[in-house]
Each structure stands twice: as structure tokens, then as C-alpha cells.
Amino acid sequence: MPSIMTNGIQTYFEKQGKGPVIIFVSGLGGTAAYWAPQVAWFAQDFTVVTYDQRGAGRSDHPAGPYSLDTLADDLQALIAALGLVRPVLVGHSTGGAIGQILAARQPGLLAGMVLYASWPRSDLHFNWCFRMRRALLVGSSLEEYVHGSALFLYPPEHLSKHAERLSPALLASARHFPQRDVVLSRIDAIMAHDATALLPLITTPTLVVCAQDDILTPPYQSRLLAGAIAGAELTIVPQGGHSFSETEPPLFNQIALDFMTRVHHAN
Fold first, then answer.
1. In-domain check, residue 154
2. How many domains does the chain fold into?
3. Which of 113, 167, 213, 235 is deepest in the core (most CB within 10 A)?
4. Does residue 23 sit within a domain?
5. Tell me, what CATH number does 107's domain have?
6. Containing domain of residue 82, as a range?
């Protein structure tokens, strides 16, 4: 399994395909596996990089506290270590928050950025959702935590329709769960996110995209995000939930591809 030293930790990564570079950055779960519905499809025409973040999957799990600033530093170090030239970043939720920080700090590092189901600043609704997830993690079994978290990720109909596939996958994730303290520290970092002062600094071409039925980061968060980044595009799809790259992969892939095509033609 390939790994590389970045910002003082061993980072697991996967690299497939040939062509312009896309780096996919996951949400709270933080693993490369989240992007399985995208990797093979995009690797036909692009170099696709996925990785496990600090405290997730097969990368190192150092003790906290964690911060999104540190996760952005980790990503910058990974881009440098792999010699990636002006990748397009696709960030889901927390991955989008990491992208916001990186793009504001390092103008010109990224050719473009897709901020998917992300948010500009943690507010009351957002923090109440994560307080509930935090309470589940502290006060219940891991099985209850992963099943409870799924309620925030998937539309009700999708969850019910695909329960036979999703439930074993959720139970498997519980069996390979990181230390609770690490996940709690990652949740605390997410709840502290406020990019209000950073977003006006972003000059990277940006697409903000979310689903209308996302209950964790509802569309108003994406509207705020797109409105704060100069020239950002906004796409809101009718359904798919917080994880619509997983629930509606053909739609997500096409939206992201159309944006990437425009970015590369502009460059």
C-alpha cells in the first residue's frame, strides 16, 4: 500500500489514470474509499489522487487536538510530495472546508475547486447536528454511531431502499473505526470552522454544488459559500442528500466533469 511522509505523518494515497490531475478530499470519515464511485470513471481521462487524512483509514492517527488548518497543511504537503502540478481539488463537506483554507492561503496552487456539500462557517443548525453525532459517539456503541450518522448522509428513501447493501458496509466501518478520541477531535475541528475572512481571498475558479435535500449542510450554506467567493458557480441538484456523489454518481460525475473541462480549456 503506497504511503508517503507529509507534514510529519505517513499518509496513505492512491494514484490512478493519466492526464490532468484531480485530488479528491473526503469529509469527516476522511478516507480514500469514499470516492469509489468516482475513481474509475475519472481515471479514464485524468490522473486521480485519493488519500486517507490524518486520523483516518491507513494514514497515521496521531493524538489530537486536530484542526482544519493542520489538515490543509497536510494536503499542501501531499501535493508537493507527489509533485502534483495545479490539480483540481474536489472536496466533500470537511474536504471542501480544507479546500477553502488551502485555496485562500495558496493562490495559484489549484487549477480549480469543487466544493461539494460544504459550508463557510459553522452555525447553530450545523453544530447541533454534530453535537448529536458527538453524543452518539460518546454514549453509544460504534454500530449505533455509524447507523445514526447515516441518517445525516442519505435521503430516507435511498437509505431504506439500499439497506441490505448499506447496513453491512456501515457495520464494517464500525469494525475498522479509528480511536474515538481521534474522531472526537476531528468533529471538534469541524465545528470550529469559520472561513468568513478567508473566502474573499480565494481566486481559484470554484464550483459550489449540493443537493436540495441535504439536511447536514443545506443549500443555504452553499449559497452563502458561493456568494462569498468571487466568480464562484453554484449548482443545486434536486436530490441525493449529503453524500450525493454516492447516491447519484452519474449526475455528480457529469457536473464535476463539465466544470473541470471548462477549467482546463480556460488554462
1. no
2. 1
3. 113
4. yes
5. 3.40.50.1820
6. 3-123+194-266
- d(CA 50, CA 139) in angstroms, rounded, equals 32
- Answer whether residue 176 shows pLDDT above 80: no
Residue 129 domain-assigned? Answer: no
What pLDDT score was predicted for residue 171? 62
Question: Using CA atoms, how far apart are residues 194 and 215, in angstroms rounded to an integer?
Answer: 19
Q: What is the pLDDT of residues 118-145, one digit of tens each?
A: 999 999 999 999 999 999 999 988 888 8
- Rounded distance between C-alpha atoms, residue 170 and residue 147, angstroms: 7
- Residue partners of 222: CB distance under 8 A and separation at least 6: 115, 117, 118, 119, 208, 209, 210, 234, 236
Strand-pairing partners, residue 194, are 121
| Cα-based torsion angle of the residue sequence 35, 158, 114, 103 in order, rounded to the nearest 10 degrees | -80
49: in domain? yes
- The residue type of 44 is Q
Distance CA 48, CA 181 (A): 31
Query: How many angstroms separate the Cα of 264 from the Cα of each of 46, 125, 260?
Result: 11, 37, 6
